[in-house]
Amino acid sequence: MFFKMFLRSFFIQAGWNYERFQNLGFAFCLQPALKKIYPDREKMKAAMLRHLAIFNTQPYMASFVIGNIAGFEAQVAASPDPEARLKSMPGVKQALASSFASIGDRIFWGRLKPMTTQICLLVWAAGGFYGWLFPGVETPVATALLLAGPLAGIVFYSAFALHWRWHGLKTGYACGGSSSCGLDCMDWSRLIRVLSTSGFLMSVAIVLVSFGLLAALNYSPLVSRGEFYLKLALPLCVLALHRLTRHFGKSVFFAAGLILAASVAGVSLLNLRSFGL
Amino acid sequence: MIAIFKAVLSSALAGLLGLDAVQAGQFLFSRPAFVGPVLGWLNGCPLDGARLGILLELLYIDFIPVGGVVPPNGTAAAAVGVLAHSAGGLPPSLSFFLGLAAGTAFSSIEYRLRASRSPWNGEIEEQVKAGNFSLRPWLAKSLLVENAVMGAYVLCWAALAACLACLPGISALYPGTDFAFTLMPWLGLSGLYFRFRTQIYKKG
């Protein structure tokens, strides 16, 4: 039953819709447990209709709610007064969904996902590939290395995702019916702080190494002092532009659009001299 | 002929990988950093694919899909970027910006696809009331439609790129787009820096 629910949890967002969000996926994940708990078709029908109601949370952390509600349903089925037990179910489901959405968004979307990009860049750097930083420069590189970078990030991320999907299901089932179930199974704030600090340190390291590479590649007697400083100043201007656009609530695409418009106007239309970094 | 076959195959693969973004799995196989080199390798330009992919990935770090928000689609962006270069014949710089536009434009299609599934709820409830508890056909239908739409979308943009490449005078833009492209890694790195710097200042 657990393994079936675990496999089905990968499709929790398959029927995502604006009316009831992840309700289809949630009912689909819960089905193996409901089939076992309610052999009676009428009771199964009522349970299915209950779980086709609105539901939305972070997809990986949804396992905590799925496990909890499966455990809750088992308790309801065994209860002498199921109607009374069922009254608190929507509240528990909603409370857990909101809490785990907040935790999951911060861990997975806010920290781990950007960290996969950092891991990709670090793997490429370890393999001696910096070509992504200098788009005009042709560098020979093995395709295996190009694929190893993103795959390393995927493996790192999936280890967390798979662990919480499985562990969430088990933990949730064990304390089914409780509205604080799983929330105290670990120090989430500490995990979030650790990920933030690690991510920030890796970001600083990647930015510093990139600037170091830019300086090293351009520090040559063939490059005039003025051009050298210009090449170092341009990336800093890009950083400042991005900071400014963020300050005014504009996305990074706005900054990219500004850079494109200025470059096309300056280089293509006004024929200003172009150069590679 | 081979180029067209590769473009169709790549679009189909993009549609399949695109499912990983929301619909199935969510292992991050749909991220531009992975889609770029894979499609690049399939089309004989792994290095350009990897560059386009990672640069798009760095810019897409800015967007978080919380609370049902539909962010720009990274799979569509990377697939269109790679195909615009390999099949469309545009330089990597212009392909990159075309990919960026394609990824952004896909959000409105994704919104419509999600909205189109809302009426299913009533039908599914009726089906369950009638004693049929199978939800698989509905989820399979959802996956198939998403897959087909993404594949067709990428192919259309690749065709648009090929038409753009034939426009007289388009090559005059290339020096400008090339220069803008050389600055994109730095814009992406600043995105990476600010993503975590904000979190450190918020203290978790």
How would you portray this structure in words?
The complex is a heterodimer of chains A (277) and B (204). The termini of chain A are far apart. Chain A folds into two domains: 2-199, no CATH class; 219-269. Chain A has ten helices and no strands. Chain A has 277 residues and is mainly α. The model of chain A has no long low-confidence stretch (mean pLDDT 92). The longest helix of chain A has 38 residues, at 89-126. Chain B starts with a helix and ends with a helix. Chain B is 74% helix and 0% strand. Chain B has one domain (2-202). Chain B has helices at residues 2-18, 32-42, 46-60, 74-86, 92-116, 120-129, 136-166, 174-202. Chain B contains eight helices and no strands. Chain B is an all-alpha fold and 204 residues long. At the A-B interface, helix 2, helix 3, helix 6, helix 7 and helix 8 of A face helix 2, helix 3, helix 5, helix 6 and helix 7 of B.
Short description:
The complex is a heterodimer of chains A (277) and B (204). Chain A is mostly helical. In chain A, 71% of the residues lie in helices and 0% in strands.
Quick one: biggest sheet of chain A? none
Number of domains of chain B: 1
The number of distinct β-strands of chain A equals 0
Overall residue-averaged pLDDT value of chain B: 93
Rg value of chain B: 19 Å
Cα-to-Cα separation, first versus last residue of chain B: 53 Å
Secondary structure layout:
The complex is a heterodimer of chains A (277) and B (204).
Chain A: H1 2-8, H2 23-37, H3 41-50, H4 62-78, H5 82-86, H6 89-126, H7 143-174, H8 188-218, H9 225-247, H10 252-269
Helix pairs in contact in A: 1-2, 1-7, 2-4, 4-6, 4-7, 6-7, 6-8, 9-10
Chain B: H1 2-18, H2 32-42, H3 46-60, H4 74-86, H5 92-116, H6 120-129, H7 136-166, H8 174-202
What key phrases describe this protein's structure?
heterodimer; A: about 280 residues; mainly alpha; 2 domains; 10 helices; about 0% strand; B: about 200 residues; 8 helices; about 75% helix
